């Protein structure tokens, strides 16, 4: 197991570099008024990728999360760049994070992070027919790649280092899709 | 279908009322240094509740989300109050949002929102043996309650108003638990 990074210090910041705080004045259909706060991202959206090595084997990455201060095991993901389609962004992140590209990329659905107060939207992309190709990313260290069987998701969610809602949701959605039960909506 | 609220206006805010921005100076085991930003909540955590009317029927709520500016269908949830256990908070939110209390409450797991940049943690609580009891909440309007079958989750995730990662993850985790495949870890 890799040694976690040393936290040299934490500091308060005035504002965020990638999220803006916005106040929304609302009037509900019953006349009730509220002002709610929401966090607004760049608007380009994000991708989370379900990379399949074969019909039952998914590739996960172990990555340090500064929010939770530990390594988390989950799906590769990242923000979309300007002038990039969802499929292009998914393939780029795949090459940066796990060292594979995919010949087949398929958007399954879009997940929100917290509908109440975040505008963030993440496209779930199933990646198949993988081939080795690495792109340099901005990760501080190479990510460990872990194979897992979709037929054993119930054991994956028992692990204390598997906690991200979007990752778990995307894995179950991919499993339903591959079993022929879930049909992506246009 | 209920009419969505009117947005009278949106304004930039200097900072958030419930999240603080923190900068973390990190040194990875390979010597790489990074400063990452994270959003820090109150630290009390949140709960998301899977309220079961019977072994296959879950109660969902349709609630307006200011982050995505539309109604979202998902599980009841909320932030924990001071001096409240996870089970107490789950039962309170249940009474406020769907008008039921539960005689049986069981913590299944804890979900993170975005490990990379949010400290937020949400406890997933299975609620069974329900009885009618309503508590006044801070919701601007009464929430519509919708019954759904766990055996038909593949149809739920096809709906355009079902998008929240935590809600979808919690529903599949509850289904694995009720099928006897997933064992909550102590």
What does this molecule look like?
The structure is a homodimer. Chain A is about 15% helix and about 45% strand. With about 190 residues, the first copy, chain A, is an alpha+beta fold. In chain A, a hairpin with a 4-residue loop joins β5 and β6. The relative contact order of chain A is 0.19.
CATH topology name of chain A: Nucleoside Triphosphate Pyrophosphohydrolase
Largest sheet of chain A: 7 strands, mixed
Just give the CATH class of chain A: Alpha Beta
CATH evolutionary superfamily of chain A: Nucleoside Triphosphate Pyrophosphohydrolase
The 3D shape of chain A can be described as globular
Draw up the topology in text:
Two copies of one chain form a homodimer.
Chain A: E1 6-12, E2 20-27, E3 33-40, E4 46-54, E5 57-65, E6 70-74, E7 77-79, H1 86-97, E8 100-112, E9 121-132, E10 144-149, H2 153-156, H3 165-178
Parallel strand pairs in A: 4-9
Antiparallel strand pairs in A: 2-3, 4-5, 4-7, 5-6, 5-10, 8-9
């Amino acid at each position: 197991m890799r040694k976690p990074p040393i936290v040299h210090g934490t500091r308060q910041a005035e504002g965020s570099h990638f999220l803006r705080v916005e106040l929304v004045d609302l009037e509900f259909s019953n006349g009730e008024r509220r002002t709610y706060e929401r966090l607004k991202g760049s608007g380009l959206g994000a991708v989370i990728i379900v990379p399949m090595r074969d019909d039952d084997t998914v590739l996960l990455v172990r990555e340090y999360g500064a929010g939770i201060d530990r390594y988390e095991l989950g799906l590769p993901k990242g923000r979309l760049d300007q002038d990039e389609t969802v499929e292009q962004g998914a393939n780029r992140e795949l090459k940066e994070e796990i060292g594979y590209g995919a010949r087949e990329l398929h958007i399954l659905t879009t997940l929100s992070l917290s509908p109440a107060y975040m505008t963030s939207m993440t496209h779930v992309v199933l990646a198949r027919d993988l081939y080795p190709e690495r792109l340099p990313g901005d990760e501080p260290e190479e990510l460990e790649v872990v194979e897992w069987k979709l037929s054993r998701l119930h054991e994956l969610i028992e692990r204390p280092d598997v906690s991200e809602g979007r990752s778990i949701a995307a894995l179950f959605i991919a499993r339903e899709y591959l079993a022929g039960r879930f049909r992506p909506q246009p």
